[in-house]
Amino acid sequence: MDKKPELTLEANDPSVAAALNAEQRLFAFYGLEAKTHFIRLPASGVQVRVSEIGSGSPILLVPGNTGEVFPLAPLLAELPGKRIIALNRPGGGGSEGMDHRSIEFRKLAIETLTAVLDAFSLDRVPIVAHSIGGHWSLWMALDRPDRVSALTLLGVPGNIIRTRPPFALRLLSVPVLNRLLFGLITPKRTGTALRGLSFVGHSAVTLARLPGAMADCYYHFQRLPHARISSLSLMERTNRLVGSRPEIRISAEQLQHIQQPTQFLWGTNDPFGSIETGREIAKCMPSAEFCAIQNGGHLPWLDDPAECGRRIRTFLGRY
Description:
single chain; 319 residues; alpha/beta; Rossmann fold
């Protein structure tokens, strides 16, 4: 399949090398060793990058945001004894770029997750996922229940019932305006690269605790050739200024059909949805438990990696 040049990545591109070097430093900080795999999706033709970390019983990790695995490094360090198959979603983390406006979003989600499981010969696994990655994983549990044994969903998992991004992020769903805003919010140096996390519920204390390599990752991955089109087309495809697009939203009725045991780890400061809404979502599902991570933002493991890791280990130990 022919791709636009801005959607591909060249190994000798200095921006690619800078991003991957930053990720390697971040993983090393947390004592993680990753083996890299590349998988070509059969229908869309997009090549995705997968990091395999650790050994033991397998977990499929599906990140949120624009698709990068690296923000989850503090959590991965809390999951010893697990073989973590960490997907960088199309458009993020060294995977090829994606114009999300040109695809069927749910179909892409199922194709991607199925292809990764097939590539690693995994029949049925638990999934740990964040934000829109959690949204993908709920679709997977609905459409391919034979491949999903359990779910841990970190932060507000995409667009469910009444949840939605805060207004500042919904502005990025407005064509033309979002191109201007992207240029304004993209950090100009690594020292400012973590400021965006303050808008999704994280305190200055949390941000000060993160290593410099985390800031380097945010800075360099946002400078990959396809970063703008991948990020902004994702916002346009999933949201409108008033909230989620109806065809993307997961309803209470759909949640009732998800039979897999599900764990929600939801930060009390997550601006995407209130704790009350989170409890309501969990009650819609036949086998779900809800945990509020005190003072946690949209990426709750950044605020309390040990607590999130402990709860995931305990939960998955039952399945």
